[in-house]
Amino acid sequence: MKDLAKPIVRFAPSPTGRLHIGNLRTALYNWLFAKGQGGSFILRLDDTDTERSTDAFAQGIVEDLAWIGIVPDASDKQSNRVAQYDAAAAKLKEAGLLYPCYETPDEIERRRKRLMARGLPPIYERTGLKQTNEERAALEAEGRTAHWRFLLPNFTDDPFSPTRTEVHWDDAMRGEQTVDLASMSDPVLIRGDGTYLYTLPSVVDDSDMGVTHVIRGGDHITNTGAQIALFKALGAQPPAFGHHNLLTDASGDGLSKRTGALSLASLREGGIEPMALASLAALIGTGQAVEVCSSMDELAQLFDPTKVSRSPARFDERELEAMNEKLLHAMPYAEAQPRLTAKGMDHGEAFWNAVRPNLARFDDVAQWHSVLEGNFVPLVADVEDEEFLAVARDMLPAEPWPDDVWKQWTSALKEKTSRKGKALFMPLRKALTGKEHGPDMGEFLPLIGPEKTARRLS
Most buried pick, 136, 254, 329, 410, via CB within 10 A? Predict the structure, then answer.
């Protein structure tokens, strides 16, 4: 990539659904690259699909990014910039680089199939470019409307005799890349209803907004050649490009925001911590160790775009679960305290340190809050355990309790009753917490306290 002191990047999602982890990966790579070098991040909503784009989805994208920790330095949406696209289209038409085509989708598809049946590449033959003004007027009289294609610069003198025309760029994540413009159909820039497809608005916006680096998924590699040509046709300097590998789900299928697969909203609602998700999304499929970072700044320092693999990366929710637990188990009380207070469950640092190794989700703290308050159903003990619990109640250490009260108490009970191991500890845990597993009782018993402990053993 270009070695610029202050890179400017953009993330340009379509507000036609909620973001999923694949979208997040692109947003993260742009944000991490820019912030790692003191640059800027632009959120640009590609809302040219007026039928499916909604304000609700647009707001959802902003919320999803903010939850992760990405706050744009600038924001815009393409529906505000139609005049700029019209001006660019007019410039291309005047130069003879944007021409009308009147084929229907069905006609184009039949032509593609005929070419493929003959063993030929299904490249558009520039039929629209051959038509005279009279022929075009006749087609319009039939009720047809034109879509407009960009004439790729893949010929010397005759546009109907394209020759190999290579476009090269040094890709940030894949090294030297080459695309032959002669292997491509002239891209459609304007639909038959007059609305713009992705390509022209993207190029115009990148140029107008001073975008220096375009970082996106590997499915756009082929598009890059045509877009570089379009930048030059508009008299603009192309940015540097980087194409990261794509994510699949655990079964190897692609991710789709339209089905809600692994959406950020559903993961957030499911209790996933943002830094667990950000760390996994950014580091999976790279040559770097996949580890949990405690902050976006830490992740920005760790991220290296040159380490991203070319092969698809498989996202496994089980790995996300494990990283989420690891993050919670290491979370300091100072970070957890405001969230505990908001939930009315702040019992101090000792409580948090005791319960955090047992959390898969932050909200799991509620069950240990209930246990501490005594709001649980005791597990029924058998007759022998009831007798043991009676002895245990009589042998409770006197107040004030020492820090190692659990150790002193169970050691005395072991000597008194000859119980040991599970037979010694499990009846006490069940009686005091209503559960067979949980926090270290050496840490949790002092939180319960002498009075509540005696009542629970009764």
Answer: 410
pLDDT band (50, 70, 90) for residue 260: low
What is the helix (H) or strand (E) element at residue 355, kind and residue range?
helix 349-355
Distance in Å from the first CA to the final CA of the chain: 71
Residue 357 to residue 41: CA distance in whole angstroms: 37
CATH of segment(s) 383-456: 1.10.10.350
pLDDT digits 0-9 by tens, 44-93: 999 988 888 999 999 999 999 999 999 999 999 999 999 999 999 999 99
Query: For residue 381, is pLDDT > 90?
Result: no
d(CA 456, CA 444): 14
Residue 435 labelled as part of a binding site: no
Domain boundaries, the chain: 83-171, 331-373, 383-456
pLDDT band at 1 (very low <50, low <70, confident <90, very high): very low
Pick from 32, 18, 12: which is nearest to 267 by CA? Answer: 18
**DSSP string spanning 377-403?**
PPPPP-HHHHHHHHHHHHTPPPSSPPT
Taking the C-alpha atoms of residue 262 and residue 25, their distance in angstroms, rounded to an integer, is: 12
Q: How far apart are CA 151 and CA 148, in angstroms?
A: 10
Ordered DSSP codes for 294-327: SSHHHHHHH--GGGB-SS-EE--HHHHHHHHHHH
pLDDT at 283: 94
